[in-house]
Amino acid sequence: MGFSSVSEHGGEPLIHRLPSVRGRLSAQAPLAGMTWFQVGGPAELLFRPADREDLAAFLAACPADVPVTVIGVGSNLLVRDGGIPGVVIRLGGPFAAITIGDGQVVVGAGALDLTVARAAHQAGLAGLEFLSGIPGTIGGALRMNAGAFSRELADVLVSAEAFDRAGTLHRVSAASLALGYRRCGAPADWVFVEATLSSEPGDPAEIAARIEAIARARAESQPVRARTGGSTFANPPGQKAWELIDRAGCRGLTLGGAQVSEKHCNFLLNPGTASAADLERLGEEVRRRVFETSGVRLEWEIKRIGVAAANRPQGETS
Fold it and tell me: What is the spatial distance between Cα 146 and Cα 94, in angstroms, rounded to a whole number?
């Protein structure tokens, strides 16, 4: 799918309206391979900034009417089949630095959560082991206050840095972000670039054992090797989403090429032929059945972005 209807303004293609960059700016960039589901359409334009200055200058000069979307490693993301209009920003290696300080770890938003946990372990710092159980980047963890194994980012976050759409840098405390369960109160257009996390000295052997225990628990209970997007729905207050889904008879449910995991029914799977539309429709069918059986409306935890493709055939549920 092309984006001529949204990329042309007075006959001028979108790329001609954007500032020059030192990083990479690619048109009609495929995104499916960047997501764990391995589905979805292209980015109208994909921007990989060279560094902070490149990102700030781009944001400052980017026309206000151009949509800007930030993605990480696509672990908790469903890109719709029609792709994403406007500019998609992906923070790479220049934003993945990890600096060990005195009781604190300063990490770039592009750093993998698992890599941060391992770096802290190597430095003999405890308290960040839970990050090894979150399949994503620190930027994504900031945006949704990601958590796993009874801890969440809010428990260890000291401060964060982010650019707004005008390219202005904001340095904010954790308290000012109004972090809640899978929620961050920062403006939606902020692009997080760094976080400072608290930690404490610990025994490297004990830290390693906790990281190994988390990896083992994930492998035993979750479809970690499948094409999935992680936990699909947030847990309702006082309840577990997977239990509600199981009670609604949705374990193993299929629609088109998409399937609810038999192993952990709060995970949707792409066994190989699913479209983004299949996955989203299956998720909505799960929500419908859960509400019908329990009166609870599940809320999506996976972020769904982009536009639907036209004329896709409807799948069947079974």
Answer: 22
Nearest to 128 by CA among 145, 108, 152: 152
Does residue 171 form part of some domain? yes
Catalytic residue selected from 231, 261, 275, 285:
231
pLDDT in tens, 98-138: 999 888 999 999 999 999 999 999 999 999 999 999 999 99
Lowest mean pLDDT among 212-216, 221-225, 231-235, 297-301: 221-225
Question: Could you tell me which of 196, 195, 192 has the C-alpha nearest to residue 162?
Answer: 192
- Total domains in the chain come to 3
Q: Are residues 101 and 200 in the same domain?
A: yes
Concerning whether 194 is annotated as a catalytic residue, the answer is no
| pLDDT above 80: residue 316 | no
- Is residue 216 part of the annotated active site? The answer reads no
Global pTM reads: 0.91
Is 12 catalytic? The answer is no
